[in-house]
Amino acid sequence: MADQKLTTAQVREALTAIIDPDLHRDIVSLGFLKQVSVNNGRVSVTIELTTPACPAKDSMRRQAEQILAALPGVTEVEVSMTAQVRQGQASRPEGNPIPGVRNTIAVTSGKGGVGKSTVAANLALALAQHGAKVGLIDADVYGPSIPTMLGVPDDERPTSPNGEDIHPVEREGLKLMSMGFLVDREAAMIMRGPMLSKYVQEALVRVEWGELDYLILDMPPGTGDVQLTLSQTIPLTGAVVVTTPQRVALDDVRRAVTMCEKLNVPVLGLVENMSDPIGPDGQPIPMFGRGGGEAAAKEWGLDFLGSVPLDGGVPASGDAGRPIVLSQPGSPAALALNAVAQATAARVSTVAMAGAGAVPSVRLVD
């Protein structure tokens, strides 16, 4: 038989050459290799990643195929890629995690006008497009915009069949909850701290989210009562901080980073939104600048999750209820937002694996 000398142990050893670029360890020691089968020259393996949005998924598949095809006696190779999102390490272990929700990600900034809600909506949609189970909370009590961005009519609200638990609205594969569902969308939100806290907790504690890999929270701008209430109500896996390239925006965003540090919320990384637009030749057009967010991330010791170019299609698609990752998936802005989603998922996986106590076993079939 062609594979008499080939063993599952040799297959596993060969695959240790594949290194996860974020965790900096081989996929075998990380427990990603779930099944190995060797039969008459045919080798099949299953590799389970920590997120369906893993940016290295295709690269890992190609590496595995090439490595296995080069083994002596191998005539056929099959590599299956699966994913199981890990539970992220909570920022406050004594908090009350939302049942069924593996990771909670706050999208925040230190000021308004940086496109935070746009990034949050597209981030959630991109993760769902990769196959993750995703929920999105519009926690911006002063200007809830997620219902408009996702095309939810004014008269559509969450339901509560038993009068207690709230069933979220569903759109484009997302489960949605917004402050705009709890009040008149056109009403002026004039609230003091205790009332703000009540609305925030209503949107979190009573909602039946089911099983979610990621719950994205679109935070209000600034560093006020809502941010404090959220950090005290649930454990946050981490925060994505949104900025624009300008120095004045970066100064405000630094305060958001400081707030996360004081609340013991890990900063997953920085996103630079509304960078110089991309011209027809594929090169940036110098208008508003770019690189400020990346430089700030380096200065502050944070990961840089990506730069999103200024594109008129981004606000237009949001106004139309079809964010750009849905309406124009091949545009530079949509591709950049998808890359941000993948980078964010990778950072969440890093946090989760850092807190993992055990490595899953592998099933071997000869």
Question: Which features does this protein show?
Answer:
12 helices, Rossmann fold, 12 strands, GMP Synthetase, Chain A, domain 3, 366 residues, 2 domains, 8-stranded mixed sheet, disordered C terminus, alpha/beta, 4-stranded mixed sheet
Summarize this entry quickly.
Helix content is about 35%, strand content about 20%.
Arithmetic mean of pLDDT: 84
Radius of gyration: 22 Å
Structural class by sheet pairing and helices: alpha/beta
Shape: globular
Number of separate domains: 2
Q: Tell me the CATH topology of the largest domain.
A: Rossmann fold
Helix content: 25-40%
Order of helices and strands: HEEHEEHEHEEHHEHEHEHEHHHE
CATH superfamily of the largest domain: P-loop containing nucleotide triphosphate hydrolases
Strand coverage percent: 15-25%
Could you list the spans in which at least 5 consecutive residues all have pLDDT below 50? 357-366
CATH class annotation of the largest domain: Alpha Beta
